[in-house]
Amino acid sequence: MGRLWLHGERLLADLGGHLDCPMFVDGRIAFLSDHEGVGNLYSCRPDGTDLRRHTDHDAFYARHASSDGRRVVYQCAGDVWLVDALTPDSVPRKLDVRLGGQRAGRRGYQVPASSHVAGISVDMTGRASAVSVRGSLYWLTHRDGPARTIADTPGVRVRFPVMLGDTGQVAYVTDAEGEDAIEIAYLPRASGERQPRRLASGQLGRVREMVADPDGERIAIASHDGRLLLIDTAEPEPEPKPEPEPEPEPEPTAEPPTDTETTAGTETATGTTPTPEPTSEPTPAPAPEPVTELIRSINGAVTDLAFSPDGGWLTWSHPGIGRSLRQIKLAKIAGSFARTIVDVTNGRFEDENPVFTSDGRYLAFLSWRGFDPVYDVHTGDLSFPLGCRPYLVPLSSATPSPFALSPEGRPAAGGLDPSVGESGDGTVTVEVEGLADRVTPFPVTASKYSSLYPVSGGGLVWLRWPISGALGETFANPADLSGRPTLEHFDITKARKSELVGHLDWFAPSGDGSRLVVVDEGELRAVPATEPGDGDTTVYLDMRRILHDVDPGAEWRQAFDEAGRIIRAYFWEPDLCGIDWDGVLDQYRPLVERVSSPDEFADLLREVLGELGTSHAYVTPARRNEGPPHYQRPIGLLGANLVCRDDEWMIKRILPGDSSDSKARSPLAGTSIREGSVLTHVDGRPVDPVAGPYPLLSAAGGTTVELTFRPAERNRPSRRVAVVPLIDERPLRYQDWVAKRREAVREISGGRCGYLHIPDMGGSGWAQFNRDLRLEVSRPALIVDVRGNAGGNISELVVEKLTRRIIGWDLTRDAQPVSYASNAPRGPVVALADEATSSDGDMITAAFRLLNLGPVVGQRTWGGVVGMTGRHRLGDGTVITVPMNAAWFDAYGWSIENHGVEPDIEALRTPLDWAEGRHAQLDDAVWVALDLLAGHPASTPPGYGAVPDLRRPPLPPRTT
Predict the structure, then answer these.
(1) Rounded to whole angstroms, how far apart are CA atoms 231 and 681?
(2) CA 384: distance to chain centroid?
């Protein structure tokens, strides 16, 4: 919430809503505010009295106001408005602004297809692929030949291309009619020109996954609302044309015919209704329903659909309670017992990505069911980072497990005996009894796996990901690409794993599992599926053959409507909390025609999503082709404060950094350059006395530059050093910010208060929290600063640490006592929050109050606890998020959203405090902690005065 200040005094403190764009206008203070529901222009006197509203917009917000001191200009709904004077009867007028040039941003342009590949479906033998490029679909032969357009209609987006076996047809999802539908097109090599067929329009919801059976006879779809749907792709039989009936001979009549015609079943001129003659023509049977609901989940969408090689079975991963538990299910699709559903696993773990092997004998899946704990090197906590493995299920008890022991031993060359390892014909027989007991892990290292697929020969391929930290600091070289996955093949017959591709982004298999199309940083190549490719077997796909033209206006229209459908499908409350969402879309839709750049479109969508009145509705603009990445290097930063003195740029301070954070180190640290040195040259070019060194460091971030310094001592020679400037100084300056506040807390409290700042509730916040937890909780009191916390999802972990209570002590000879529980606060804990404490920061602030962890000092928090899961990329590349996870608390209900958590003790750092360097809120928090400490002293360890007496007691006298 914006606040209005003048010379350190707050104006209009009781005015709700958000205040923006303050201006001095003709002796008054003008500003924008939405405290009456919609953003309009207001003004008041410098003392905050005589509040006036000068505009009356009730549909769109007034935005981006500015002034020349007499008048105010602003924009509303894409128009420019002018208020000539801030009088009580002022009326804004819309300016007729006519642009002389064309809107170049709406002109069509061509994009490189390799940078916009969204999906690939490879044909049966790996000869060609259906490639989805920015919402259109193309047929691309791999080795040579032209590309051909399958579907490319401006304003229509197609997704999820799927080959229908070897029928010469490809299916995909289209929104040509406004809702998702299935369209089936005939490939170029199919005989004749035939129009695509469209199925199930408006019956699918938003499609999340789509697969086809090997023969292309049916499609399985996972919808956003938890439905698993089956669609028959067979073409309807053409209705036979009826044979014309012979006209009956007219019967003789004594009366002349009248002008009124008589037909069967209609009233005649004489008032009678004859009964129609029965015909021998049978009544046509109704067409079968094209969409069948197989199952519906009540815990979100089903995922990872896969058909058996004979098309008779379908498997998928079914969500369970919570956000991680999933189980593998099977369903009989055809033949006897059709629609029978079988549980392969029981839902205790996170089981996903099930597939049938190509011989039909096994079902394989990935599961996070490993529980081999790893000790935390800092706090002694235990976690399970190595929990994932592929698992195999023989579908029949007569099929031996390839990993089981044999009384005869294995063949000399390894693997299975030839008779045992003979491949099946793809026919699947499922023996339900004992199915779960036949689950066995693959003999591979536990890691992180994904993208499990069957390939020819009965083997499997998958992606194996390295175990790395959440902050990406695991690898020695930040530019190291080893954080990307490795493509591996496992030969079940030989029980042997091999590496196919070292690093890649993703891949797609051919229909027969003999070839893979690998996507690797914009490069596509077709490789063998069972062995490493070489020069003879690897085919590089020339994506330049796909010439894709973009119509920006049509893309934005489609993306606008798609965003509306996504919001309707995923918003946390099914009825959108009473919002007339169709009315909102109709209100803003005309403005799409005025958009002329990706940023303008994103700005429009932000206003549309703002009508939800809910947090976490974000929009990220698309980027156009702005050149290769190496031409987009950011400015280089030196991790130092430079000032201009006597036309020379002197180092005033080198930021100290923090050795525990690899990103928080100044490039000048360790170079023997001292404060007071003057930077004279960058790469041999003299530093301009006015512009300074930063123009010379443009695009130098992350690369090596040479800096020349003249030492502060004039009689010493200049020094040249080579450094790698930082791309981002924020981690370095943040650690400096924390160190300064910790020092201030020590000084104010006389060393009695510890200080922890948590910047977010993600990986960096967890790292920062634990970085100093052990030392800071050893102080009698603790300040937990969550001001500016950007949110995340680990507030529960932080709360678990802070709710530990000391119930005893461990005493060790020649060492200080250690509390039990360890790393628990010794005394009072005080939270410090402000209006920028957001999302999961709201949650931890609420937890402080509800769990009585300690008082909250500061300001009311941001108020955004309807979170998001994932991001949605629209057809033009714009990314939106949807508020879909709402938080409800016993004491607050739904009220934290759009309001925040009120502090126990209000404390405000004014602009004047900031300008003069006063830590007003921090001071208040420390004094609150000291007051609590005075009334409730910190826990202290026992002394040795009351230790037990372990001497042997004297022998008592005998009793007579």
Answers:
(1) 70
(2) 23
Check: CB of residue 844 under 8 Å from CB of residue 765. no
State how far the Cα of 760 lies from the Cα of 764, in Å rounded to an integer: 7
Dihedral angle sign, alpha carbons of residues 576, 579, 582, 586: negative
pLDDT by residue (tens digit) across 530-554?
A: 999 998 999 999 999 999 999 999 9
- What are φ and ψ of residue 363, in 5° steps? -115, 130
Considering the candidates 33, 132, 367, 839, report the single residue annotated as catalytic: 839
Burial 447-477 (b: 16+ CB within 10 A, else e): bbbebbbbbbbbbbbbbbbeeeeeeeeeeee
List the end-to-end C-alpha distance of the chain, in Å, as a whole number.
90
Q: Which of 54, 616, 757, 919 is catalytic?
A: 616
Q: How far is CA 490 from the centre of its chain?
A: 31
| pLDDT at position 418 over 90 | no
367, 368, 373, 374: CA torsion to nearest 10:
110
Residue 897 a catalytic site member: yes
CB 722 within 8 A of CB 728: no
pTM of the model: 0.89
User: For residues 236 and 234, what is the distance between their CA atoms, to the nearest angstrom?
Assistant: 6
DSSP 208: E
Two structure tokens written together for 462:
């998958």
Tens digits of residue pLDDT in 183-208: 999 987 654 578 899 999 999 999 99
Q: How many CB atoms lie within 10 A of CB 586?
A: 11
Cα 669 to Cα 719: distance, rounded to the nearest angstrom: 15
* Helix 730-749 and helix 920-935, axial crossing angle in degrees, nearest 10: 40
- Which backbone phi and psi does 539 adopt, to 5 degrees? -120, 125
Asked if residue 713 lies in contact with residue 704, where contact means CB atoms within 8 angstroms, the answer is no
Instruction: Please state the length of the chain.
Output: 960
Name the H helices within 617-756: 730-749
Distance CA 423, CA 431 (A): 18
Between CA 446 and CA 372 the distance in angstroms is 10
Residue 363 contacts residue 393 (beta carbons within 8 Å): yes
The answer, yes or no, to whether residue 950 has pLDDT greater than 50, is yes
Q: Are 511 and 163 in contact (CB under 8 A)?
A: yes
Q: CB atoms < 10 A from the CB of 126, how many? A: 22
Contact 165/215 with Cβ under 8 angstroms?
yes
Angle between helices 581-588 and 598-610 (to 10 degrees): 150
CA distance 903 to 854: 11
Structure tokens at 495: 């029980």
d(CA 751, CA 855): 20
How far is the C-alpha of 129 from the C-alpha of 188, rounded, in Å?
12
What DSSP character marks residue 113?
A: G
- Would you call 616 a catalytic residue per the annotation? yes
> Which one from 596, 749, 897, 919 is the annotated catalytic residue?
897
Please report, rounded to a whole number, the percentage of residues in the chain having pLDDT higher than 90.
76
